[in-house]
Design a protein that fits this description.
This protein is mostly beta strands and 276 residues long.
Length: 276
């Protein structure tokens, strides 16, 4: 009986170790560096453009470090600022032409802002965006939140025939009575062939597969995607800021990490990339 108990204990302890060994870190940014430094340009491209972005957003995205900088304590801070004349500025960063990935566990530890009109997002876009356009390239929204829903995170996919307000997604709501903005949380997806699972702090809350798509719609998520994160102001979904909205607003990012399935990596090392 003692041997049986020992074997059971070993099995219990081995389970979480096996889960950890499933994933191998292949890309990450811990945002270490001096206060005021811009995000690493070898990893991130900062977009700069006037407002709109197809959603009637109000912000203008700028080049770092005005609206995106390291805080010196291991965080990236994306700032939304209110300027004279009703102008808002913010930042949108992407890994396009720097890094893309097909499948894996993609996560970020973030503290999102709170306020009417705020729209933070951590998401992915198909790397063939330049050739196919949106939504044919596919979009995976790992985390979206709007200020008027302080307890709720949205995870959504957009593709041809199910984009915009027709995107397919689910939500997770904190049950503690605390707003998402009150602390850091880990927003993640586990993305495999024909499967995308959304997680909040390690707990799955929505799973999408080809069977969930509208009849005749195509699954466009079995190819490389790049990463994005931004803090939008206003837009069709959150609505504009109002008298209760305080500025500056901050999206604070502790890290972004991408893991590959260790077994799949081993197979690629042994046999090379799969042939099309």
């Amino acid at each position: 009986m003692r041997w049986f108990g020992l074997l059971a204990l070993v099995a219990v302890l081995a389970a979480p170790m096996a889960a950890q060994e499933k994933w191998r870190l292949i890309w990450h940014d811990e945002f270490d560096g001096p206060a005021g430094a811009p995000p690493d340009p070898a990893l991130w491209v900062a977009e700069s453009a006037a407002r709109g972005w197809g959603n009637h957003e109000l912000e203008q995205y700028t080049k770092p470090p005005e609206n995106a900088m390291l805080d010196g304590d291991g965080h990236l801070v994306i700032l939304a600022l209110a300027k004279p004349g009703g102008v808002y500025t913010s930042a949108r960063l992407k890994t396009q032409d720097r890094f893309s990935v097909t499948y894996g566990k993609i996560e970020a530890r973030m503290q999102i802002p709170y306020g009417q009109g705020m729209w933070p997002a951590f998401w992915m876009m198909g790397a063939d965006y330049a050739d196919k356009g949106w939504p044919a390239c596919g979009e995976i929204d790992i985390m979206e939140n709007i200020g008027k829903e302080p307890f709720t995170v949205h995870g959504t996919v957009h593709g041809p025939g199910y984009s915009g307000t027709g995107g397919i997604g689910g939500t997770a709501t904190l049950g503690t009575g605390r707003r998402l903005s009150d602390d850091f949380h880990i927003y993640a997806v586990i993305w495999e062939e024909d499967s995308i699972q959304f997680l909040l702090d390690g707990e799955p809350y929505f799973h999408v597969t080809p069977s969930r798509l509208p009849a005749g719609a195509h699954w466009v998520y079995n190819h490389p995607f790049f990463l994005l994160m931004n803090l939008a102001v206003g837009g069709d979904w959150p609505g504009p800021p109002d008298a209760t909205t305080e500025f500056p607003q901050r999206l604070t990012v502790d890290y972004v990490r991408v893991y590959a399935d260790a077994e799949h990596l081993l197979r690629r090392q042994q046999f090379g990339p799969a042939k099309p």
